[in-house]
Design a protein that fits this description.
By secondary structure, the chain is α/β, with parallel strands linked by helices. Helices cover 18% and strands 25% of the residues. α1 packs across α2. The chain starts with a strand and ends in a 10-residue tail after the last strand.
Length: 159
């Protein structure tokens, strides 16, 4: 499935829509360049799940666990940018079966970690912010490709 997401708010809303489908043991793999919207997506997902506190990039801690305000699996938000392999991801000692895990910079990091997962690739078109007035932040559309892997996500639809 491929979508065009035109604002950060809509990226967060996409995360919220996916959150409605998730349960303990689910894994979401996010890929995209710096500033593509991976953390914005995860923030929307976390808000929908009702996690405590705000979701921020776990760049310096590698993984952050967000408990929920209500009963349910915690959200584990991982930044794999500085990890070298799936073995290093495994060394983080994440309780995969009892958590909803979102891994940013996941490409090449999930070998053997799960039988089913959702892969989300976020691409930011070059030059999309051209013509913006000086001082204004460009709002650039993103192309989001969502691929379900394994039997659980074979028929995933978020439209």
């Amino acid at each position: 499935m491929q979508l065009e997401i035109d604002t950060p708010q809509h990226m967060a809303e996409l995360g919220a829509r996916l959150a409605l489908e998730l349960k303990a043991g689910d894994l979401v793999a996010l890929n995209g360049e710096l500033g593509a919207g991976k953390t914005t997506f995860t923030r929307g997902l976390g808000e929908q799940l009702g996690v405590r506190g705000s979701v921020t990039s776990p760049t310096f801690v590698l993984a952050r666990t967000h408990r929920r305000l209500v009963e349910g699996a915690p959200l584990v938000h991982v930044d794999a940018y500085r990890l070298g392999s799936a073995a290093e991801l495994d060394d983080l000692d994440i309780d995969w079966s009892a958590s909803i895990v979102v891994v940013e910079w996941a490409a090449g990091m999930l070998d053997g970690v799960a039988e089913h997962w959702i892969e989300i690739d976020i691409r930011r078109p070059t030059g999309a912010g051209a013509g913006v007035a000086d001082g204004d932040e460009p709002v650039e559309p993103r192309i989001v490709t969502i691929t379900g892997h394994g039997a659980r996500w074979r028929d995933l639809r978020l439209d």
